From TrEMBL:
Species lineage: Eukaryota, Metazoa, Spiralia, Lophotrochozoa, Mollusca
Protein name: MYND-type domain-containing protein
Annotated organism of origin: Elysia crispata (lettuce slug)
PANTHER family for the chain: ZINC FINGER MYND DOMAIN-CONTAINING PROTEIN 12
Amino acid sequence: MTAVGSDTMMSESEELRCGARKKLKPYVRLNLLTKREHEKDKCELCERIGSLMCRNCQVTFYCGMEHYTLDKDIHVVLCSRVKELRKPIEFNSQAQTRERWLKQRRIRMEELYKFTWTRGQAHLEEGKYDSAIPAATVSIKYANELFGQAPEVIPPLLITAECYLQKGKLKVADGFLARALSIEATWTDIRPFIKARIRRNEGLIHLARNKLSDALECFAEEIYQSTEEFGPYHIRTSGGYCYLGHVFHLQGRYETSTSLFRQTVKIWIDHLEPILEEMNHQSYLPFIAGALKTETDRVWMEDPDKFEGLRLLTKCYIQQLETPTSHATALDHATTCYAISIMNYICERYNEAKAKAAEGQARILQGSLMKNTINSKLHHVIRFCDKKLFQLEKTTAQSSETSISE
């Protein structure tokens, strides 16, 4: 059984080569009356008969305009790969040749499975639920074909469940969670982190039903399972602390919730500060076989981690603002602003990073904490942002001059 990982299988540049910048040609509307029942193809996102066909790959079908439109963003990236994947394997009398082709097809399908669920996770963390659902749905489809009812199906199931939960469709979310729980019950070798994600999903559903005690148990179990795999101070353990703090905050137990928010922020700062320093003090890094990898080519952090970090830190900041000042101090606010500003910087959102750092400095001033080390760190972030913004402005100006001269 292949272990489920969180590494994105295609880089941004690879996506572009797969056609992310290309526009799909208009769909083809099929005449279903000319086809026999067994010849009719199923919709990419559901089990209904496909009446529309992608004109580019001619192997992807949709039941109507709604699903065609929903899947368009992810399919434009996968179109050429899907066409290659679903091309019939030619007959060959040599068993070794046929086995090699089947193995290559499985490898391609595994890449698409991992890419689609990772993309779905990124969209979920970014709050783009209508984009996350098609990506996760396609990933479920590949996972079922590759592994059957195995643990690999759980991550996209949980993405879909949480998306529907965030959209207020609790019954639909329950259905996807139930499928994940069914798989968990039949397998004994599921990764602790996958179990942690299941517990988070359960906890969020309990929160939606205002069952705070049940939610506390789920988020505590999430922390335990994440710690089993990554340790207590890893960014993928921090989500449990944040959601646990959220429940304590709802219960009015501000001392405990503030402590958990501080722990969440500290974990992210400890992870982000080395990246910030490396991004600003090394223009290039040694790579395999003596090659050089420039800063623009370097993946400093995977998209799902970036967006989850922003979501968790923003949640901490909002909750701290709603906490009495006797528990959440100006220093807490400034420290969280610092963490959010670094995360925005790593996401190349330099204006947002600068604004959040300036907000942190205002909190420092409000609390008369000018000599605190956070103040100087916030100043460094602003300086880094100014440098990046100047470079971008200069590049834009040079491009404009080149266009005019041509």
